[in-house]
Amino acid sequence: MNILSSFLITRQSSTIGGGLNASVWLLSNIVSSGCVKFETPNDTLIFNCSEGATIQKLQSKPKHIFITRQRWENVSGLIGFGIKCQNSFQKLKVYGAEPLDDIVAINGIKFNRPKNSEHVTFYPLIKNAPCFSDNFITVESICHFERNKLISSISYWLYTSKGECSMLVVDIDSLQQLETSEKNFANCYPNFVTHFTNSEVIADPIYQKWVKTFPNCKHLCFDSRQSRFYTMDTTHELISQLHFVCPKFFPLLHGSKQKPLETPSALTASIENSNYKSATKDLEYDFKNDFWIEGTPAFDYELRLSRLKEKFPHLVNAAPDIHPKYPRLKCLGTGAGQPSKLRGPSSYLISTSAKSHIILDAGEQTMGQLVSAFGYRRALEIIYHTSIIFISHSHFDHHLGLIGLILAHHRLKTPFPMLTICSSKALLIWIRNLMSLLNFPMSNYRNFLFTTSNYILENPNDKIFNKCLKLSRLRSFEPIAVQHSVPKAFGCKLVCSDQRSTSIVYSGDTLPTPEICKASVNADLLIHESTFPEWEEIHAFHLMHSTIADALDVGKFAKHVLLTHFGQTCYRMPAVPENFDENHASIAFDFLDIAISDFPEYSKCINSLREVFVSDLNNQKTESIRRKQADIT
Length: 633
What we know:
By secondary structure, the protein is an alpha/beta fold.
């Protein structure tokens, strides 16, 4: 049975006039997943933690995360939060069902029991006991146990001593669970209710009748039928600049020209419109003043492009392709580590035809990046026609989006072609165990082939894998062992079955490696990591990464080098060495969409890009001088 829970938050009044100086914000970019924060001047609590939640702007660092139900959409951001807490020496408490710590125990992020004082601590729900309480906020949960085993957890409410304010977060999986728990809500009169409940349950008249028992209450609903993905305005701003310089290679993001239409929920019919809101980007509710603050309006690309044209009237732009050429590359993530507002973690889509795709690495938010780039329907089509997903190594920024892609296959609910997932053995075992914990046993995926890079090297004539090669329109696919901080790290080389036998080499994360250099001789494209600038070569060596200068040196015999996997700084365009050959190398950005044969043309945009991003480049130059002076002293 799916774990089900709800939490009620209340706070003692500490503001003039008896109001609550607090707000509820929608955090998640993926509306169907749901992720909200409850924020006061003193506390920030998050309910559910989906992919990408770590990049959202928080007035204060969250110390408590509550998981309503154990599904990947609710917990996929926890690992990123855990690693962020370890890096910043921040303590984080996570509350949820017992198996939750097993789900996220990977990449060294172990959820410790409350007796320990590590950065991340897991608190399993306890029957009829508060989850969390301090001088201001109390969160309680009442759990349904059978034989001392938690099988459900439904929202439990709490009110302040003066009964001023409360918020109820409800996640109900079935009407049966509602019926068994309805008595717990008999005396509950919240000011605000957040509905994570499945859309099918919300649409039922029984649920709608139950909702009416909360008079004069505001409601926020996450409709699981919605599939919109909201991209942050910082990303839109960057795309507008890139599109202005080279529209042929940077199309505007899907759905960005106009605001998406609202999908009305079944609750609209049973709740007054003034009291009901469907989850939208950056929607906020102010408890103190009792009003909604509408989300950010759609990004105005026309206005931004017109301003860029006024500022740079001399820049000439190439016209976009009407008929796309293959094979081609779509960069879904070109950053290192956690996702940022400017670059997502590593992920690259190689398309050998309109219906043949390979994905190289799948960092956090890969599914969201696909939706943002192509739209939800086209993204599902791409996943349907993807035959190989290659994960270079077990670091989280290269695989956290993989589960989302697997679950997207499940949503297709149609037979699909063979899919090979190639990764390390340890990671594949974790994926199998995780899918089992999430009630998606891998036995349901008969067309999935889980294999390792070592197996492919030792068995190049494997019949099933060769079938995937044909579906992908590849002549060959060869993993390449590389040197990184984890064992079993690989790059790869693939040769397409087009007339030119286009060859692409992908380095993964690595030190400068002779094997990659050898494989890239005469390769049409080398995609090489460039995590650090040249002035951080010592740091790069200790972390077993490459600098931009290293990548250019490794790829000196390739026809073209694409620099990628940049450190997550605030720079839009990384600085390149003075001897950078623009005819031989270029810089990757998220959502770069280019035919492999067009890289020489894309390289010619480097000077225009430098002009548009001159402020960023000057800041990096200043930082470079400061670092060198510090080294001398």
